[in-house]
Amino acid sequence: MLTFTLRRLLLAIPTLLFISLIIFLLVDLAPGSPMSEIPLTVPPEVRLKMIAALGADQPVYVRYILWLRQFFWVEPANLMDGWFGWTLAGGEQRILSWQSRSPVFTVIGQRIPQTLTVIGTAYLVGIAIAVPIGIYSAYRQYSVFDQMGTLVAMIGFSVPTFFSGTLFIIIFAVWLHWFPTKYDTTLAVTDWASFVLQIKQMAMPVMVLALANAAAISRYMRSSMLENMGQDYVRTARAKGMTERVVVLKHVLRNSLIPVVTVIALGIPSIFGGAIITENLFGVNGIGAALIGAISANDLPMVQTLAFIFAVLIVVFNLIADILYGLLDPRIRYE
Predict the structure, then answer these.
(1) Which is higher by pLDDT, 51 or 152?
(2) Which residue, 297, 330, 156, 138, is CA-closest to 231?
(3) Which phi and psi angles does 96 have, rounded to 5°?
(4) How far apart are CA 223 and CA 123, in angstroms?
(5) 8-22, 32-46, 171-185: which has the minimum mean pLDDT?
(6) Does residue 117 surpass a pLDDT of 80?
(7) What's the mean pLDDT in 275-284?
(8) pLDDT tens digits for 162-218?
(9) Which residue of 60, 139, 152, 323 shows the fewest CB atoms closer than 10 Å?
(10) What is the CA radius of gyration of the chain?
(11) How confident is the model at residue 87 (pLDDT cuts 50, 70, 90)?
(12) Helices 60-69 & 300-328, crossing angle to 10 degrees?
């Protein structure tokens, strides 16, 4: 397992470098320039200084190296600042957002807490709901519970989040006045009253996203459980006199989790990517909203950085899923 993990990590380095080059070139060659955001009344010499301040006057290969270095190169004294708001070693120029004129990672660092709080909670709630529903639906196949679970899953699959989100706003915010219509990103949780307000404003976006996530995961869980419940080892376990609880939760569930782990692991990067539609609908100032704003404003450094972060997360969680396979099923061995 250790050899396999190290080999995959070493393979991930050239893979991510190639992905970073493709992302940088695709976005860099797209239409858009920081010059388009500068008023025409600005004198040419001032315009050139503004372009140079953004680092957009450098050749493509220089801009690519500077852009890539921002992910890894930090001053040791500033290491505690992490990825969000540091200075490049030697005082070199940082990659700035064309829209906000701030370092890209500073902007991202300001948005991630909102995304993790709302989108991350929704994903965890979706998993907590979906896995038990999938297990029991498979065990009680074609029962009333299974039919209701299928109905809810089909609704979660077929109803887009912009429709369900709008419906939730009309019902729970406009008609019932239970929850606020917009997410207050300036709210600080300092006491019990502010904590309750935070829970209330998170309720609707979390419910909307949890329904969509639970719909997919519960169907995978149910399908995998049904496939394994008909295997010979299950009949053997029952013939040995094991209780139904042990058979289902110890033997069937463990083998059934392998494809579900893949779905969950590959869905985790979407937490950091944010739910673009839901974040904009409820006013959550997260990564998804930042990406939409960057695309609208032709903020190429921000788009490039966010796209590469998503690629890194996908590669990392693919590796984590592969490692979990071996832990869930001892028959899986990596040479």
Answers:
(1) 152
(2) 138
(3) -100, 150
(4) 20
(5) 32-46
(6) yes
(7) 80
(8) 888 888 889 998 898 889 888 887 777 788 888 889 888 888 988 888 888 888 888
(9) 60
(10) 24
(11) very low
(12) 50
For the record, the structure tokens of 80 come out as: 């505690």
In the chain, the largest separation of any two C-alpha atoms, in whole Å, equals 87
For 103, phi then psi, to 5°, come to -55, 140
pLDDT at 16: 86
* 3-state secondary structure labels for all residues of the chain: CHHHHHHHHHHHHHHHHHHHHHHHHHHHCCCCCHHHHCCCCCCHHHHHHHHHHCCCCCCHHHHHHHHHHCCCCCCHHHHHHCCCCCCCHHHCCCCECCCCCCEHHHHHHHHHHHHHHHHHHHHHHHHHHHHHHHHHHHHCCCCHHHHHHHHHHHHHHHCCHHHHHHHHHHHHHHHCCCCCCCCCCCCCCCCHHHHHHHHHHHHHHHHHHHHHHHHHHHHHHHHHHHHHHCCHHHHHHHHCCCCHHHHHHHHHHHHHHHHHHHHHHHHCHHHHHCCHHHHHHHCCCCHHHHHHHHHHCCCHHHHHHHHHHHHHHHHHHHHHHHHHHHHHCCCCCCC
At 120, which amino acid appears? G
Q: Treating both helix axes as pointing N-terminal to C-terminal, what angle do 192-229 and 253-267 enclose, rounded to 10 degrees? A: 130
User: Greater confidence, 279 or 93?
Assistant: 279
- CA quadruple 168, 169, 172, 174: dihedral sign: negative
Q: For residue range 51-64, list pLDDT tens digits in order.
A: 665 566 677 777 78
Task: Report residue 334 as tokens.
Answer: 């990596």
pTM above 0.85, yes or no: no
List C-alpha distances in Å: 162 to 168, 208, 279: 10, 9, 10
Token representation of residue 43: 């004198």
